[in-house]
Amino acid sequence: PYQYAVFQRHEHGGPTGEVLKLVRVEPDFNTAYDILRQHAATTVEEHPGWGATFAEVANNMFEIHDHNNDVRVRYEIALALNSGTTEVGELIWQRADEDTSPSSADGSDELYLMDIDIDCQGQGQDTVKHFMTGAYRSLAEASTAMKAAAAAYLDKHEGVKLLERQIELIDERKVVRQRYTVGPGRYVNKQLISETEWLKRQNQDSTQVATPAPSSPLAGPLLEPVIHQVKPRPQRTLTAKAQSKATKPLDPTPWCTCRQPDDGSLMLGCENDDCPVQWYHAHCVGLEEAPQGAWDCPTCAP
């Protein structure tokens, strides 16, 4: 079976300029990555002359930089296969991408890779560490490896849950027959659309101006952009009845994703004070009655 080998590369004065050392072999990528970090931390402690160090991933290599921003040591995680034993009984490991046998069971050159993003919880893409590993000979092998890596992480991190955002059903010819994808969305004018489509419309409508009909007294943006600032909320409760236009005019402030003012129908206020929309027409989010207790809009809901 495939294993994951952690290799250390460090500068050396020899002909190649680098020395490659096998650190450890583990059954899944996440466990191998933990070993990599532990070994890197020990290596840094053994070299105080490097000063303040930092790590980054470049070209699929985990690099340790010294205080001068010079790379002092590199690590790599590679898919490995056991190719035999030494005279003293030690296992011999060969990188899967160096295997000279046919790439797949049917003799084709088709291989599968696994992309891994680590430290995604940071602020911005600069903190994400991206790796690629592979030379899997079938999609099933790659899928199994992906699940094994995720399972290893789940075992070590309490409270973390597995979320499958996409499932593909593939036939014997490797053709996708069905695909299921989950993701954020919202109701706009009683129509369910994805969050990506909504943002696309927002960007388009903020730059387009409607041409009113000759009889129309109004002209302006098709859809006004959401203004990210806290506005005074309508002075009404979630279950308040429509106010009488004769006694008190309705607030003309545009609300909701439809960017229309309070029309006297049921309005729902998002509990998140930082919500960019703040108030919604109930019918725009597919509700007919006010929910019990606190309510988070589709954008702010966890």
UniProtKB/TrEMBL annotation:
<dbReference type="InterPro" id="IPR028651">
    <property type="entry name" value="ING_fam"/>
</dbReference>
<dbReference type="InterPro" id="IPR011011">
    <property type="entry name" value="Znf_FYVE_PHD"/>
</dbReference>
<feature type="binding site">
    <location>
        <position position="270"/>
    </location>
    <ligand>
        <name>Zn(2+) 2</name>
    </ligand>
</feature>
<dbReference type="InterPro" id="IPR019786">
    <property type="entry name" value="Zinc_finger_PHD-type_CS"/>
</dbReference>
<dbReference type="GO" id="GO:0008270">
    <property type="term" value="F:zinc ion binding"/>
</dbReference>
<dbReference type="InterPro" id="IPR013083">
    <property type="entry name" value="Znf_RING/FYVE/PHD"/>
</dbReference>
<dbReference type="InterPro" id="IPR001965">
    <property type="entry name" value="Znf_PHD"/>
</dbReference>
<feature type="binding site">
    <location>
        <position position="300"/>
    </location>
    <ligand>
        <name>Zn(2+) 2</name>
    </ligand>
</feature>
<protein>
    <recommendedName>
        <fullName>PHD-type domain-containing protein</fullName>
    </recommendedName>
</protein>
<feature type="binding site">
    <location>
        <position position="284"/>
    </location>
    <ligand>
        <name>Zn(2+) 1</name>
    </ligand>
</feature>
<feature type="binding site">
    <location>
        <position position="297"/>
    </location>
    <ligand>
        <name>Zn(2+) 2</name>
    </ligand>
</feature>
<keyword id="KW-0539">Nucleus</keyword>
<keyword id="KW-0863">Zinc-finger</keyword>
<feature type="binding site">
    <location>
        <position position="258"/>
    </location>
    <ligand>
        <name>Zn(2+) 1</name>
    </ligand>
</feature>
<dbReference type="GO" id="GO:0005634">
    <property type="term" value="C:nucleus"/>
</dbReference>
<feature type="binding site">
    <location>
        <position position="275"/>
    </location>
    <ligand>
        <name>Zn(2+) 2</name>
    </ligand>
</feature>
<dbReference type="GO" id="GO:0000123">
    <property type="term" value="C:histone acetyltransferase complex"/>
</dbReference>
<dbReference type="InterPro" id="IPR019787">
    <property type="entry name" value="Znf_PHD-finger"/>
</dbReference>
<feature type="binding site">
    <location>
        <position position="256"/>
    </location>
    <ligand>
        <name>Zn(2+) 1</name>
    </ligand>
</feature>
<comment type="similarity">
    <text>Belongs to the ING family.</text>
</comment>
<feature type="domain" description="PHD-type">
    <location>
        <begin position="253"/>
        <end position="302"/>
    </location>
</feature>
<dbReference type="GO" id="GO:0006355">
    <property type="term" value="P:regulation of DNA-templated transcription"/>
</dbReference>
<keyword id="KW-0862">Zinc</keyword>
<keyword id="KW-0479">Metal-binding</keyword>
<feature type="binding site">
    <location>
        <position position="281"/>
    </location>
    <ligand>
        <name>Zn(2+) 1</name>
    </ligand>
</feature>
<dbReference type="GO" id="GO:0004402">
    <property type="term" value="F:histone acetyltransferase activity"/>
</dbReference>
